[in-house]
Amino acid sequence: MAASLTVACALVAGLTVAAHADDDSPVPTRSEVRDARAAAQAGQRDVAGVRAELAAAHDAAEQTQVRAAKAAEAYNGARYAAGQARDKAALARAAEVDATAQVRRLGVTYRRAALNTYTGANELAVVDSVLEADGLSSLLDELGSARMGQQALGSRAEAFHEAEDAAAAARDRADKAKAEADAKAAAAQKAHDQAQALADEAVQAEQAAAAREKQLVAELARLQGVSVRLAQSREDGLARKAAEAAAERAARAEQARREEARREQSRRDELARQERVRQQAARDRADRQDRQDQQDQQEDTPDPAPAPDPDPAPAPSPSGGAAAAVAFARNQLGEPYVWAAAGPDQWDCSGLTMGAWSAGGKSLPHYSVAQYEQSTPISASDLQPGDLVFWSDGGPSQIYHVALYAGNGMIIHAPRPGKPVTEESLYYWITPSFYARP
């Protein structure tokens, strides 16, 4: 801008000199002044345009990084679902094994009972058929054809058939569970590949943005007539102030929302108190009337007054593990973000919160949606150190980022590819969507 203004001033000065040389034009014309101003304004627009492009480059790289982080958390979700499916398949297969073993046990019991029942010489043929039967089904046919319909054998046969049916059903469930586990494993692999592709894209975008930023800052330095280092320092300062201002606005908005929520809660508490007073007064009147009626009937013992309503339970306080969780997370500051990582020296968002709360004595899954589902939802006004803060594109099922609340309006989190574990304002980015306490 300084350079542009210099050009404009030189243009105006040149016009003035020309006017002195020409007696017919002692001063610059209005059109000449407008042209000079337009030249200066064009320089200003150039600076603004470069800054806009610089902001757009940052935003594009940021959005790519966010997409990569979302894909990484989607992979964590697919991996979590695949693990659950594997566990379900293992249980189903174990049930199938137990059911098959039960069939074998009942078969042995049935054979022995049949042999013990038929011991006469006229029944040797039946015994031979029992011994030679090539399977339990054919055995039952042989026994049936030999009129072995005694009640004990009949009940054993019924139990055997029920066990066979149960084993077949267990086998079917195990096969379906395995198919589901295979499908979930394939989905997890697909999510892995997508996350890897977006992570690679994010790295490329970060590099391209850095290169473009270098070019744009050099262009700004030329337009402003300053060194590149000074131009970079100015832009960094402006970006920092803009981020701080945005965080301050978000914090004020959140504070206003909390104050409104507190006022609303106070109003509700007052209404509830008034209702309790009204109910107590009604009970007192009823008690007085009862006592008066009893006195009229020469009954001096009144009914005991009802106990007052208990005080509301105090808000839950964070467990002792919360301090350990925050301390653990703070010890990881500066360590790199790596998608699907859960330590010991690299993390993604849900991997860090999982590791932190593991140090705090609680087990959380490596998946932000499941961490919310397995925690107790709270409001922003209830936040305490160690609580979890979530960002979502919609409802809880669309959560894609989680951070650990550190107190005093600060969070510790693994933000995204290219940015290490950091402690920063709760409102560094956009207002969180959900809050929960493990």
Automatic annotation (TrEMBL):
Domain of life: Bacteria
Extent of the signal sequence: 1-21
Pro residues: bias regions: 303-317
Coiled coil (residue ranges): 160-215
Name the record gives this protein: C40 family peptidase
Pfam families noted in UniProt: NLPC_P60
Region feature (Disordered): 249-323
